[in-house]
Each structure stands twice: as C-alpha cells, then as structure tokens.
Design a protein that fits this description.
18% strand, alpha/beta, 5-stranded parallel β-sheet
Length: 381
C-alpha cells in the first residue's frame, strides 16, 4: 500500500522557483522515495551513504560542473558538509531554478555551514511522518497508536509495527547520531530520550533531568538540541501577552511521533496507552503535530500558562496577533478545567476549539466549539 505524500507538489513548486531546495526530516519518513518520484526533468541521484556515490564526489567540483543541465539529488547531504560552499559557487555561476535537491536527516542548524553557505539560494521543506491529512481520517486511532513513519503505520500488525519502531530507535542511537559526528554513548542518549518520554508534554526542566540522569544541565540541554535538530522532539514555546501576570517561561517538550513515544514507554496497544499516565499528554502531542502540519506559513504556535493557573494547550497566532485557542482533551465528553476559561479571558481569541476524539462538532460557549480530530482542517477555514 502506497500513499501519495502531500509534500510532492510543494517540492515541485519550490524547484521551479529556487536553484536549491532542501528536503529535510527524520530518517525513514520517505524523503528518498519522494525525491525519486519527482519527474520534473532528467535527474541524477547520489546517496552519500553508498561508498560508490560518495567516491564520485572525490573531485566534486569537476563532477557536479558536468551536471549543470540536470537536477542533482543528493541524499543524506549532512554526511558531506563540505559540499555546501561548492554548491553555492556553482549556483552563483548559473542561478537557474531546480539545480539541486538536497535531502537531509538533520536540521540546517545542525549541518555546519548549511544555512550560511546557501543563504538566499535555498528553500527548505520538511517532510514529516504521515499526517492525518494524508491517510483516511477514520484511521486516526491507528495513526496515533503506531505513529506516522511509513513502515510503522503500514505494518501488517501492531506487533510488527512495534518491532520496526524499536529497531528504528536502536539504529538512530547507534548509527545515525554517530554519522552526524556526535560522540555520545548510545546508552546515555537512550536514557535521556526515555526520561523525556515519561515527561512528554510537560515543562522543560534541565536541572530535574540532569539530576535524575547524573549529568550536568548543559549536557541535558545539548541532548535536547540533538533530538530537536534530528526532528525527534518538538519544543513548544510559551506565549507572552501583556496581561500584567506572571507567565511560565520554560518551553513544553514533546516526542514528535506518537508511535516512537509509545515504543519508548513499551505501550504496544491502545488499551495499554489508555491505562498509562501519559495517555492524555500523548493525545495532546499527537494533535499538536497534526495542527502543525496544517498550519499556514504566516501562523505560529505557542502554549499559554500563568503562575496563577490559567492555561491553554495551544495558541495559534498570526503576524497581526490574531489568535485561535486550542484545548486538547482525550475524552468523548471533554470538559475544560477552570484554568482554560481564565486563559480564554486573558487571550481574547478570535475563536477557540476543544479538540477531542469524538464524532460531533458542537458549540460549548460563545466562540468555543468542540471539534472532532477528524475535522482539524476546519480550524483555519
């Protein structure tokens, strides 16, 4: 079973506009397959994990100069950061659109010189794991349980899916991270990642994690940056509004793929997830990722919390400070706590939704509606 990725058309559009396009995202999300399926023009594909392809770039300037009329696709480009200055020079000689498509499993900030070398010449697009907008919306429970990595979501059984996710985690720690030049014992990062899974959806507290793991707070911060830079973790920043109230300043931290979260916590079934203290936070993170994938470019996302207890799970904000409030509940009869109503008064949102796993959309209060997760696209209508 194959699913057409919604990122295909945006990538084709960017290749018609920019000389270099960067397709980034976690390992195994389908970047290579998407790139190979692009049929814009004659192309050359290089996988830097293959010694034969890496050898072709022994004299990269000579080799790439001979491909100026083709689309050059370079996979796992973070393995050869020295290419970025050369690509910049080649692009400056001939700035036609669609010269290079660079695939990477680390953010531009983690690849040395990537952002600086190609500034003004490159447009980035992230390919996420499968989102609800790409699968049957009625499959949302499977997507939540297994996560969106194609090999996990499309597995023949939950057991096979969990086996794949466990293998992914092992490979990520033992092979992918060292290939980025990061020398951290796999067992150390595994313990940190597992601890983060237990604290999924909660406020970042470097001192608490450091003390629990026997490391320093700066080391904990370094580990978090690695997981964020390889698309494993999302940090959600707090929203500051001029209310005269004391606001929480630490970000919330989420494991971006719910399937990996459940694997780290050894939760193979929906019953196991539902009976675990992380269930509500897992659902919250799942919904946040779905909304992030739907969010128009001009919008940004935050959470809101005051020291006095006012709280909103998600605040979507435009450049003009128009706000949409989102509360996320893992319940078929969602009832927001008192802190939600206090936050609503503070924020003065244009509209607010309570996202839940039910079927019906209905009004709760003025400008507040319960919204089924299957109808998330209506948030921005």
């Amino acid at each position: 079973m194959m699913l057409k990725r919604k990122s295909t058309e945006p990538i084709e559009r960017l290749l018609r506009l920019f000389p270099v396009v960067g397709l980034v995202g976690a390992r195994q999300v389908g970047k290579t397959l998407l790139a190979k399926n692009l049929a814009l023009r004659e192309s050359v594909y290089l996988d830097l994990e293959l010694p034969s392809d890496a050898h072709k770039l022994g004299n990269a300037e000579l080799y790439l100069s001979g491909l100026k009329d083709k689309l050059v696709i370079i996979d796992e480009v973070q393995r050869m950061p020295s290419l970025f200055p050369l690509i910049r020079a080649l692009v400056d000689q001939n700035r036609r659109p669609g010269r290079f498509l660079l695939l990477g499993s680390a953010s531009p900030e983690m690849i040395r010189n990537a952002s600086e070398s190609l500034a003004g010449r490159i447009a980035y697009k992230e390919l996420t794991p499968f989102m609800l907008s790409e699968v049957l919306v009625t499959k949302f429970r499977t997507l939540w349980r297994r996560g969106g990595f194609p090999n996990s979501f499309l597995s023949k059984s939950d057991t096979a899916s969990l086996t794949w996710r466990e293998a992914f985690i092992k490979t990520y720690l033992e092979q992918d991270i060292p290939q980025l030049g990061i020398q951290i014992p796999a067992a150390h990062l595994r313990r940190f990642w597992t601890m983060l899974a237990h604290l999924h959806g909660q406020l970042w507290n470097a001192s608490h994690l450091a003390q629990s793991l026997g490391i320093s707070p700066p080391t904990a911060r370094h580990y978090l940056d690695i997981l964020e830079g390889t698309f494993i973790v999302r940090q959600l920043a707090p929203y500051y509004v001029n209310t005269g109230k004391r606001l929480v300043k630490s970000p919330k931290v989420y494991i971006r793929d719910s399937g990996l979260l459940h694997a780290l916590l050894n939760l193979p079934t929906e019953d196991a997830i539902a009976g675990h203290p992380v269930a509500g936070f897992s659902w919250e993170g799942f919904v946040i990722e779905q909304i992030a994938a739907l969010m128009p470019p001009a919008w940004k996302m935050f959470f809101y919390r005051t020291a006095a207890g006012a709280e909103m799970d998600l605040v979507l904000v435009t450049e003009r400070e128009q706000k949409i409030g989102i509360e996320i509940k893992y319940s078929l009869a969602p009832k927001p706590a008192k802190g939600f109503w206090h936050a609503l008064r503070d924020l003065k949102c244009k509209k607010t939704f309570i996202v839940y796993p039910g079927k019906d959309r209905y009004p709760v209060e003025k400008n507040v509606e319960a919204l089924p997760v299957e109808q998330l696209q209506q948030i921005f209508d």
